[in-house]
Design a protein that fits this description.
The complex is a heterodimer. Chain A is mainly α. Helices cover 57% and strands 0% of the residues of chain A. Chain A has six helices and no strands. Chain A is globular. By secondary structure, chain B is an alpha/beta fold. Chain B folds into two domains: 9-142 and 287-358, 3-Layer(bba) Sandwich (FAD/NAD(P)-binding domain); 154-284, FAD/NAD(P)-binding domain (3-Layer(bba) Sandwich). Chain B has helices at 9-16, 21-27, 29-32, 46-58, 79-83, 97-101, 166-177, 198-213, 231-242, 290-294, 335-353, 406-428; strands at residues 38-42, 63-67, 73-74, 93-94, 105-107, 111-115, 120-123, 128-130, 133-136, 140-142, 183-188, 218-223, 246-249, 257-261, 266-269, 274-276, 279-282, 286-288, 304-305, 319-321, 326-327, 363-372, 375-386, 389-392, 398-399. In chain B, the strands form eight sheets. Chain B has a five-stranded parallel beta sheet, covered by helices on one side. In chain B, strands 13-12-11-17 form a four-stranded parallel beta sheet. In chain B, helix 4 (46-58) packs parallel to helix 11, helix 4 (46-58) crosses helix 12 and helix 8 packs parallel to helix 9. The A-B interface holds A 21, 26, 28-29, 31-33, 35-43, 47-51, 77, 79-80, 83-88 and B 54, 336, 339-340, 343-344, 347, 351, 356-357, 359-366, 378, 380-383, 393, 395-398, 400, 408, 411-412, 414-415, 417-419, 421-423, 425-426, 431-432.
């Protein structure tokens, strides 16, 4: 087998293993987790109204905001996100932040 | 009836693995012909429209057929704002253009029957659709006659307006025609029913209409329950905006209506008291839409039991049921939840066609109610599955604080409208 093809195949295999069912939060899981967000923040996190857009914002910023919502001292203007953010683990928040950062 | 204990399709395929391509193509014709699988979705509301869209998003090669009688679908959510004079009826109307553009075959017909063994759906007029997976999002049907005197003809005099459309318009006409000083009575049902805060938002909005147009009028809520959704927040808001105009009678104080006389617009309560209304709105007992019964997925209590992880029927394999028709407690029967369940069912089916395991289930609900034009309240929850059961995640969710500032209430009123525009865009592609 050509060395380059072998390397690519190995990398692909490793990728499949690392992103497959063994990982706690697969891409499909994250898409499901993100599903309800669209109901207020818009499809793919692109808002068509007063509720902030999530799509394309830096993952670190999104995660920090969600964690602040989840904390005992949420941002002063918080209305509902403090109640919702408490339903997600930090790992799920990181995955959601990455997901929405990648949406266009 | 097919049971879930039956050998699964995937397992069957595995068994047939060595039996040659001929048998394979007989076994799974759609996939053998280059499609990723055939899904029929019955019902084009929040659940069905969303499921159809998200199936196409997951894999455009999935053949998706949506069956919905209405060319223009009107949502129940936000019709209360129409009663309040804050929105037109047409603002709750949506079409299926975006779904068609995504490649969904939209058929405007009534689905009359399902053969869960042959995996076919028969439409009014006789057309037969074959499916690999069926999604039912049929909403509710009224249990006609369960409340004495309340049948289909009674609903023409005393509307329920709990399915949007002509019933909504009838109730609005009656409210408009009512003289100042009249009494509006709403009879609220026992749990479970579609949109738990709905009756209470409705009387709030009718309170606003009366206050601004017919200030001598009264509102009486006769309730078959002792408690209701966002109760403290509603009661606070009613007192603040409508004073003595709205009276709520719980079941313990004789609130349960046991007989309706639609012609005289009178109701009799469990305690034998007769109340006469100028406009009578009966929110009657409900059950899953009839097609669920035809498909063999409805339980004896009238609702559809589902597997928590997938929303596949517990009674029939390859039929997924979403929205108000399901017995999905602790999730409420809300448009938000129907949409969230539709996305999960779509993801589960797409994974199944691709031979992948079902993704981990997760849902949320957010429900805004408008008490007065700039005064919104909400309830939210996040759900997962624990030990095979739907679970409200501890510590999450809850209702708006009772001591919130006017600015907070104004924001929630605005967010309610923003929610409607966002979810209408998500489900039907409607531009705000």
């Amino acid at each position: 087998m050509d060395r380059k093809i072998f390397a690519t195949a190995t990398a692909a295999f490793l990728f499949l293993v690392s992103s497959g069912p063994l990982s706690a939060q697969s891409a499909a899981d994250t898409a499901v987790l993100a599903g309800p967000c669209a109901n207020c923040h818009g499809t793919n996190g692109k808002s068509n109204g007063k509720i902030p857009t999530l799509a394309g914002r830096p993952a670190t910023a999104l995660a920090a905001v969600m964690k602040a919502f989840k904390s005992e001292t949420p941002t002063p203007a918080t209305t509902i996100m403090n109640r919702i953010a408490k339903g997600y683990t930090d790992e799920q928040i990181e995955a959601l932040a990455k997901y929405f950062a990648e949406q266009k | 009836m097919m049971t879930t204990k039956m050998i699964s399709r995937r397992h069957t395929l595995r068994l047939l693995g060595g039996a040659g391509a001929g048998l394979m193509s007989l076994s799974m014709p759609a996939i053998a012909q280059g499609s990723a699988g055939r899904v029929v979705v019955i019902g084009g509301g929040f659940g069905g429209a969303t499921a159809a869209k998200y199936l196409k998003r997951a894999n455009s090669k999935i053949q998706v057929t949506l069956v919905e009688p209405l060319q223009r679908y009107y949502t129940c959510p936000f019709t209360n704002l129409h009663f309040g004079g804050l929105r037109t009826f047409e603002q709750q109307g949506h079409n299926y253009n975006e779904l068609r553009a995504l490649g969904v075959q939209v058929i405007h017909a009534l689905a009359n029957d399902v053969d869960n063994k042959k995996k076919t759906v028969t439409l009014a007029g006789g057309r037969v659709l074959q499916y690999d997976k069926l999604i039912l999002s049929p909403g509710i049907d009224i249990r006609w006659g369960e409340l004495s005197g309340y049948d289909q003809s009674a609903a023409q005099l005393a509307p329920h307006a709990w399915q949007a459309g002509p019933q909504t318009q009838l109730l609005k006409r009656q409210l408009d025609a009512m003289p100042d000083g009249g009494t509006f009575i709403l009879a609220a049902p026992e749990n479970p029913f579609r949109c738990p805060p709905g009756p209470y938002e409705r009387v709030s909005m009718i309170g606003h209409y009366f206050k601004t147009r017919k200030p001598k009028s009264k509102i009486l809520v006769l309730d078959a329950k002792e408690n209701f959704s966002k109760q403290g927040l509603f009661l606070d808001g009613w007192k603040k905006f409508y004073g003595e105009m709205i009276e709520w009678v719980p079941v313990s104080k004789g609130g349960k209506v046991v007989r309706v006389d639609a012609k005289s617009r009178e109701v009799e309560t469990e305690f034998g008291k007769i109340h006469k209304a100028s406009v009578l709105n009966v929110v009657p007992p409900q059950k899953a839409g009839f097609i669920a019964d035809r498909a063999g997925v409805t339980a004896s209590n009238g609702w559809v039991p589902i597997k928590a992880e997938t929303f596949e029927s517990t009674q029939v394999a390859d039929i997924y049921v979403i929205g108000d028709a399901t017995a999905a407690s602790p999730m409420p029967k809300s448009g938000f939840v129907a949409n969230a369940q539709g996305k999960l069912a779509a993801a589960v089916i797409a994974a199944s066609f691709a031979g992948r395991p079902a993704p981990t289930a997760s849902w949320a609900n957010t429900c805004y109610s408008l008490v007065a034009p700039d005064y919104g309240i909400s309830v939210a929850n996040v759900y997962d599955v624990v030990n095979g059961k739907l679970n409200e995640i501890k510590g999450s969710g809850g209702v708006s604080p009772r001591d919130a500032s006017p600015e907070f209430r104004k924001l929630e009123a605005d967010y309610g409208v923003a929610w409607y525009n966002a979810i209408a865009n998500d489900a039907w592609g409607t531009k705000a």
